[in-house]
Amino acid sequence: MILHIDMDAFFASVEQRDNPNLKYKPVIISGNSKRSVVATASYEARRFGIGSAMPVFQAKQLCDHLEIVPGNREKYQAESKKIMEIISHFSPLIEQVSIDEAYLDITGCERLFGSFKDIALSIKNQIFQQLDLTCSIGMSPIKFLSKIASDLNKPDGLTIIEQSDVKNFIFSLPIQKVPGIGKSSMNNMQLLQIKTLGDVQKYSLPILTQKFGKMGQRLLELSNGIDKSRVEINYIRKSISSETTLLKDINNFKKAKNIILDRAQIVGRTLRKKDLVCENVFIKLKFSDFSQITRSRKLASPICSSSAIFNEALFLYKRFKLKKKIRLIGVGVTALKNKNTPVQMLLIQDPAKNKKQWESVDFAVDSISEKFGTFIINKASLTKTD
Ligand SMILES: [Mg+2]
Questions:
Q1: Catalytic residue among 15, 44, 101, 359
Q2: How many domains does the chain have?
Q3: pLDDT at position 385, please?
Q4: Which of these ranges, 154-163, 188-197, 277-286, has the smallest mean pLDDT?
Q5: Distance from the CA of 116 to the center of ligand 1, in angstroms?
Q6: 69 with 86, same domain?
Q7: How many CA atoms lie within 13 Å of 66's alpha carbon, on the beta-carbon side?
Q8: Are 274 and 146 contained in the same domain?
Q9: Is position 101 annotated as part of the catalytic site?
Q10: Is residue 209 part of a domain?
């Protein structure tokens, strides 16, 4: 079961929540220059025919008492984070598709949280209780249908398409509701008298490919209830990281290596203190021109020793072709798991005996640092200067 969540008039709702003077009023979020367009319109503004991407001057013509609020990207980003954090408690399989939209694979989650409908209602409820914002949710066994479903009963909607309803739903779904159908393909749809997604089945693949290119095949698949796209996990809930801005920009491998070691030790220590292991290591580099990169690596088995984190981070660093001087280095871990899970313990016993020895060294170092302070004991290579 795939759930699609979409916040209702997100930017406008956040502003209306934070400023009581804007409540129940036609509000748009946008820049205030002559060429600005509407980023989001409140539902009150939509009643005047105002919508996203409309030039502001046109919106003003449609509604003379329109409230124009400049957007605050950082504020919306912070709210977005809170929303993702809330939904991440229901399933770790999250694909965030925009600042206010995400897919969630909730297959199998009903044992923990009740029926699929219960899950959707709890999500809506928690977001409303904690953030005073409403969202619309669509659910179906097929990804593209979930997105269509979330749009059907906005605002504050909940639409569930059960497996048994999928066929009928597709059969009567207006073709323009299918994601990816633009104005140009609509002309061809009219020509072929395709009004609903079900009508696509009247045509063979060669004809559909001829008329719609690559989209032809996808349309035929969708009309048969086949959607090969899955929830691509791109939201990772927890991470531990440590970074440092250097006193002077560097391009010296030895120096960078020492900093990576230093950061890896800090990250490893935090990880072990929380009794966690990680399955993903990343490095972050910021350069003298302020551009930055992040590179991450999924591990075959969970780790928590500083030296293992260091090795992975160094591997990522070495693979990167350095062209500019570095001003910041960060090391971090994600895909965190509890170390005490029995299955995890088995996995941690890596055949590499080296690893286990390093882990015991780590724990010894941790307890000494705990007693005498963080900097009393360190790797020998860190104390060398070059
Ligand atoms: Mg939205």
A1: 101
A2: 4
A3: 42
A4: 277-286
A5: 22
A6: no
A7: 29
A8: no
A9: yes
A10: yes
**Residues 252 and 360 occupy one common structural domain:** yes
Percent helix, strand, coil in the chain (nearest 5)? 45, 25, 30
* pLDDT over 50 (residue 55): yes
Compute the distance from residue 274 Cα to the ligand 1 centre, in Å: 36
Distance 134 CA to ligand 1 centre (A): 10
Q: Kindly tell me if the per-residue pLDDT of 25 is higher than 70.
A: yes
Residue 90: domain span = 2-7+82-164
Predicted pLDDT of residue 380:
59
How far does CA 120 lie from the centroid of its chain?
18
User: Residue 66 sits in a domain of what CATH number?
Assistant: 3.40.1170.60
pLDDT exceeding 90 applies to what percent of the chain? 65
In the sheet that holds 2-7, the strands lie side by side as 94-98, 101-105, 2-7, 135-140, 158-160
Token digits for 157? Answer: 């909607």
CA–centroid distance, residue 238 to ligand 1 (Å): 25
Please tell me the predicted confidence (pLDDT) of residue 169.
Answer: 96
378 and 258 both lie in a single domain: yes
